[in-house]
Design brief:
The complex is a heterodimer of chains A (527) and B (541). By secondary structure, chain A is an alpha/beta fold. Chain A has helices at residues 22-33, 76-79, 85-94, 97-115, 122-138, 141-145, 148-164, 175-188, 213-222, 234-244, 249-269, 281-286, 313-316, 333-346, 362-375, 390-393, 411-418, 431-435, 447-459, 461-478, 481-497, 510-526; strands at 7-13, 39-46, 61-68, 202-205, 226-230, 272-275, 320-324, 351-355, 381-385, 399-402, 423-426, 440-442. Chain B is built from 19 helices and no strands. The longest helix of chain B has 38 residues, at 349-386. The radius of gyration of chain B is 31 Å and the shape is elongated. Classes of the chains: A alpha/beta (527), B mainly alpha (541).
Amino acid sequence: MAKKKPIVLFGTEGSYPFSGGGVSTWAHILCSELAEKIDFYIFTITGNPFVESRYKLTDNVKRIIHVPLWGVEEPVEYYDDEKPFSYQIAKKARTTPEVVKRLYMPLFRDFINILFDPFQDPRRIGEIIYGMWKYFDLYDYKLTMREPGLWIEFKSALMNEYKDTDHTFGDEPKVFDVTFGMRWLYHFLMPLASPIPEEVDITHSTLAGFPALVAIAAKYEYGTPSIVTDHGVYIRERLINVGRADMPFFSKKLLVNLATMVTRAVYFNSDQISPVTTANKKWELKFEAPESSIAPIYNGVDTDIFKPTSKPSHTADKPTVIAVAQVFALKDIETMIRTCDIVRKEIPDVQFIVYGSLDVDPEYVQMCRDLIKELGVDDYFKFGGFHNQPSMIFNEGDISILTSISEGFPYTVIESMSCGRPVVATDVGGIKDALEGCGILCKPRYPQGIADGVIKLLTDTNLRLELGKKAREKVLINFTTEKSVDAYYEAYNKLLEKPKIPLKDQIQEKSVLALLEEMKEVNEQTA
Amino acid sequence: MSKQPEIETQNPSFETIKAELVDTVYKLIGNPISSWAVAATIESLGIRDIDAKTDYGYEDVFALAEYVYEQVILKVNEEKIDKEEKVKLGDFKVTMKLFFKHYSEGLVFTMPMLSQIVSVLIFEYALWAWLGFNVAQATVIALGTISAFIVTGGFIQIMGRFISKYTGEGNFYLAREAIYKVLKVAVPTVIAFVILTFLLNSVLPFYPMRMIVLSLIYMVLISAFLLVAAILFGSEQRSMILFSIVFGTAVVVVLMKYLSLGVYLSQWIGILTSTLVMGLYTSLYYRVKISSLKQELIKQTLPGKEVSYYNSYRFFIYGFCYFSFLFVDRILAWSAGTPPPAYIIWFNTPYELGMDWALITFVITIAMLEFSIHAFSRFIIPAQKKVSASNMKYFNSYFRKFYTAQVVLVLLVNVVSIIVTYYGVMSLQGFEDRIPEIRDFFENPITTKVFWLASFGYIFVVIGLLNSLFFFTLNRPEFVMYSMIGSLVVNCIVGFVCSRTFGFEYATIGLIVGAITFAVSTGLIARRFFKHLDYFYYSAY
């Protein structure tokens, strides 16, 4: 009989297997490369319920637990699909106002207290999160969250928070902040209502956010060890996106506080935190990640597919600079266009080709087109759109370029390096980890500096070839798929060796202890 | 975070680019949530630790963020002083615009009915009406129509719910799937009703079998018509209903007048044509929508059977009870009175004419509800953004006043519609001498009596419906369901007693008391609903 493979509960949000993109590509590589060694249960959070897999899943993906946050009246049908709906009806019947008041209200009160002060002891946050999950194991999520008592509690807590704190700098909360704030709690905390299969050996979250809530619960309930991969830094991204969103001040604050408390609890409770680049570390440390738990694992590229070939005929005669990027503000294509304008003055037959979607931010695309026209670089700068053979893109050029103002550890850089095409890139995020010693790093938003790098590489053939060779070598040594996957496999094995000690026996929070005591009695009665 | 920059600098260029940065951050995020948010924003602008040091004179991005945060806060406070203004909710101009737009849209709903009245007046025929029907024939048609409304009522309501939910989300694929799913249960239910009625009448012959068969044929055809019309109604394609009815009626007229096919066959073909026109249009409409939005490319499924039933049973019960409520007085009236009717339920022309007359006032008033609910949906989010949470009572009381205004407006429109309809119909008396049908109409005082009683009852039905729409909008069908069940029971009991005690036409008293029950019970809930609107809005997910 074949040996039973370990099971990893693999948490994703808005990515694998229902959406494309860098994280999904990484996740698919990891799952499929470990087909013989690991079984995966994908725990995936999506915005809407109507999604389908973008990938051909390998046989070791045994189950998908889908939590759609919006768009369904009874989301339990998705994430608890192995039980008949009559089971859920029984749960609903158990969820009386009295039960909510006695068992859930104390937890909710503690939760709200942390929500308004998210920099509290992360142990406490973890315990409350576990308590809530434990409660929803027996009682209905939707009915509980609809209980008027919780609404009153939330409303008065929010107003007290406003009264008690120095709000010289903050706007006064609006009705919108309260109604939508509580709705967001209902939606975002939904993963806490999902059961966790007991047979899971490890939890692996692809971001330190909501999918990792179940990892915390599993750790308390079963002692399941956990690892989290930080592609970007979740809290940093939330700060950027929510900060720029068009919504009232208190709503922003609530969303950011929620993300802050979740991230801190996730980092605190994770056995291993693996950013894809050392650049993420400074944010992780500031949000409660123990330094000893941080162990970067770089993304990898398939060097048999991304390998150097000669340039195809349509670019053979021209010095060509390739970029692979979706066209939107963070990629700072504007700077790339200005760079092109400087370069063409030195190298008149140069061409820049940008491959990638033009649909993400049409307004920005138009702005770029206008700039191209304004600078008169129409003949030098082209949008190539979608390319049907990604592995050939970089071989079309002599060098690659990336002008992003914010990045994690972009695949495009290591893919180009793997093709022996040196990269001129802005020194943001983890690009330095990849490019140091085999490419040119520049200051972001500085066309002249970037153009100097491009001109240098295009005019100095020896240097270009030498850096290309070094880049390929660096990828072969550090950034192969095999190396990346092996590092995760090794991490899994290390975690498997750890004794599974449920943290529930060490709980200190009164509300959670009281709940567990009551639950024992209820479970005995139910049994 | 460290509060002070570690590298002090007097470099004036630092000050300039720092001021530029403060401006940029302020433009991007406005009032910043924290210095963490500022740090993340600064990084997203491509500013790194090294840039913070060399270009701005701070140790790192976090230290720079601390400075920028404080500067932006100063800016925010300056702006705040300039911006202080009094909160004003609602907008008279917008309200009037909404009123004319949605009330006129609502009136389109009355057109199919009016078209039938006009058709009867001009040609003597409509889709399932004919001035030449005798009482036995009228009984056949009435029973077919009423049973069609009651049997399909629950499905019509569910269909409306599903269609508006999915098309509201722009998901025409699932809306179509939901339509199929409802039809898959509705059609067998209609067939089952036909078989059971047939068998029942075979065992207990309430009516001659020919009457029952004719009635059931009408029932099946009208049911199909209602189900398809409900799809178009829910899909906001209401003018197509009018078109298909006019087209179907034209077919009836042609078949009767020129091909002499007889009234039954002509009307059956007419109803069927009308249904087919709507069906074809529906099918085409959804096909075009789905393919233009490429919605068939994504695998989407409706909730499972159990979940669907759980989510929709309240709507079904409400729909079933509502249509039963609207017709139960007829059943009670037609089964009472002296001398006893020929069969268990026997059509009474003056009573039906009085009810139809009153129905015009009802339909004209119902058009108002379109406006009320659109205005409510339109104002509720902007109001939440304007009113401070500490002033929640003001928010709730504003909408309580809004609700009261809607009730008053509905009453006003209702009274006007009753007066206009009454005098409008009464003015036809001038043609009494020339048109015998008009003379017949006014000959029996029961007609006018029933008109007044039923019109009075309908006032309360409309108020109940207004309340119900608010509950439906915020996803509380249970409030409506229980009220409707209670009101139906009251309607049945009071109508039964009155029709048997005072005279058959007093079945309308059942309608009145039932309607008052509906209006009052939903009204009491509405009071609580608007008092705690903030909660009900929150929990409408």
